[in-house]
Amino acid sequence: MAIETLYDKDGSINALQGKTVAVIGYGSQGHAHAQNLRDSGVSVIVSNRRESANGKLAIEHGFDPMPVGDAVAQADLILITLPDEVQPSVYADAIGPNLKPGAAMGATHGFNIHFKTITPPDNVDVIMVAPKGPGHTVRSEFERGGGVPCLLAVEQDASGQGFDVAMAWAIGVGGGRAGVLRTTFKDECETDLFGEQTVLCGGLSELIKTGFEVLTEAGYPPELAYFEVCHELQLIINLIVRGGLNYMRYSISNTAEFGDYYTGPKIIDAEAKKRMQQVLADIQDGKYAEAFRGDYAKGFEWFKKQREADHNHPVEQVGKELRAMMPWLKPVVV
Ligand code: NDP
Ligand code: MG
Description:
Layout: E1 5-6, E2 20-24, H1 28-39, E3 43-47, H2 53-60, H3 68-74, E4 77-80, H4 87-95, E5 104-107, H5 111-114, E6 125-131, H6 135-143, E7 150-156, H7 162-172, H8 175-178, E8 180-182, H9 185-200, H10 202-217, H11 222-231, H12 233-251, H13 254-267, H14 270-284, H15 287-297, H16 301-311, H17 314-324
Parallel strand pairs: 2-3, 2-4, 4-5, 5-6, 7-8
Antiparallel strand pairs: 1-8, 6-7
Bound molecules: NADPH dihydro-nicotinamide-adenine-dinucleotide phosphate and magnesium ion.
The site of NADPH dihydro-nicotinamide-adenine-dinucleotide phosphate has 24 residues, from helix 1, helix 2 and strand 6.
């Protein structure tokens, strides 16, 4: 592999010995980092609102959630696991003013550091351990004795110990058991945004909706359309994740595989690729980050409108009814 990949043997949890780690936010990532590090013998404190569901969970898990400033003032490593849009104001109000010189600030996604919406002082380390999986998997794999692969980066190394501390953190959450890929805040942040916008979330949602619309507008029953453009995705994704496109194509019928080559490039054509390249350029030059932060400043006005508009899309209505017929999917209604 072109990228440097590190394991437990390439670092030591000892770099966190005698240090205090503050986990700010006890959500998806926060609860996993806090518990995994504690189980790895690290001294961990948590900051979260005590009355919220996450706050109550932290208390149930034996932590004593405290205000952000109090946690930061005691900590040698501060993990910011708040939603990205919330981080700059919490940093300005309570993290920045309480940072100990020589402390390390840790991010699980490079967004705010890379786009400079948080600019830590020169006397702290700025590091990242970004698990390539949701927090509940980071926790459950660790409990099973495994771990989720992580990306590791050191953006600022004031102490000269930035890498050692980041590696100890990655080992402590279980990442070193699976593989820790060394990268930069820039690469992690830009590829993450590109992937979620063009393929994983944006691309896929539009593909499903448009496929559904074409079939139903042509008079086909919505139930059939749902099965064909949404439900069966799971089958295909599982094959791809386990064995790549080759395994998916090996498993499907020749009719389907022929159609894959025959039609796929007509949908995702050279123009679509050009638009994807434009999306990447907008991410790289900060246009996307500006749009996201600008809308957040207006109370996420545009964002909420889009969410509302898609919430009752016909594919969602029929999907809800069909999923209820398949209890083994453990259907969730949101
Ligand atoms: P969540 O939304 O799951 O958790 C957010 C936490 O922040 C909650 O504990 C919440 O507390 C607290 N919080 C929210 N708003 C505020 C506020 N205004 N003031 C104080 N506390 C607040 O976040 P994620 O774990 O999803 O994301 C955290 C970071 O991890 C982000 O940088 C994200 O990009 C990154 N990341 C996330 C992944 C994921 O799978 N979710 C994967 C890899 C990285 P309360 O319950 O009190 O509201
Ligand atoms: Mg992402």
